Amino acid sequence: MFPRILQLGGFTLHTYGLLVVLGYGAGLWLATRQARRVGLDANRILDLGIFMALAAVLGSKVLMLVEDWKYYSANPSSIFTVATLQAAGVFYGGFLGALLAAAWYIRRHRMQFLQTADVFVPGLLLGHAIGRMGCFAAGCCWGRPSSLPWAVTFSDLYAHDLVGVPLGIPLHPAQLYEVATLLLLWAIVMRVARRDVFPGQLLSLYLILYGVARFALEFARDRAGSQMPFGLLSLSQLLAVLMAPAGVWLWFNCAPRGARNMPATPDGRRQNA
Questions:
Q1: Are 163 and 138 in contact (CB under 8 A)?
Q2: Interval 189-244: pLDDT, tens
Q3: Computed over its alpha carbons, how large is the radius of gyration of the chain?
């Protein structure tokens, strides 16, 4: 819809890139704020956030190549183009890349994994929502054809050349569906975060809620060329199927061990486990 903000000579400021940077900044700011609230080292969280961002970019590109391997294997030269570099990538690849990087960093610096992960969850949801607005502006991650009154029609030739979005066809605004969903999940998580929760609760809640939501949202997206065998599920849906049960497992394995989750005594104090 609005893929670039300005162009000066050979320099182009893309809307998607700007919103991704803003989303990352907002998410990292919120993570450091959460860290201070629970008594963690905000500077350490900041360093970890930067490290995770680099891993997320790499992971999202790798999974994008895997998901569209049929195209990239037939056109290997396109892997090293500016268009591929500027493409949004696949969120799950970025999430897995960031998760692996975080696991290594946390282990090396002897940090508590679950408590640290909880600190990042609200910022992850907020930053992801802002980034999805960039997807809508660029035209990537477009939806299926739709005759609904709120269907959107892309007409920018630059957007088509950049990400391949179909022009002149009413489509589901799949990106905006996800923006609305992510903001709703962010509001839920922020409400839970204000209470005294056990370590791992926000992470498990995120895995459950986003896994279920992403599985449903995928049905509104154009999945041509990114389907699993027999056309049953997209790769993102397959990962969502694994994500939600993992969150349920984490919830029930963390909750009994959380001393702060024990019932309160009549005088208002928490019982010790």
A1: yes
A2: 999 998 867 899 999 999 999 999 999 999 999 876 555 554 677 778 888 899 99
A3: 20
Q: Looking at the predicted structure, is the pLDDT value of residue 271 above 50?
A: no
Q: DSSP assignment of 158-217, as one string?
A: HHHHHH---SSSEE--HHHHHHHHHHHHHHHHHHHHTS---TTHHHHHHHHHHHHHHHHH
Which whole number is the average pLDDT over 79-83?
Answer: 63
Query: Helix, strand, coil shares of the chain as percentages rounded to 5?
Result: 70, 5, 25
* Cα–Cα dist 103/44, whole Å: 14
pLDDT of residue 228: 56
Q: Is 3 exposed, middle or buried (0-12, 13-18, 19+ CB in 10 A)?
A: buried
Q: What are phi and psi of 141, to 5 degrees?
A: 60, 40
Q: Are strands 4-8 and 11-14 parallel, antiparallel or unpaired?
A: antiparallel
Q: Given the structure tokens 């035209």, which residue do they identify?
A: 139
CA–CA dist 227, 104 (Å, integer): 31
229 touches 61 (CB < 8 A): no
Residue that has been written with the tokens 């998580």 in this structure: 189
Beta bridge partners of 12: 7
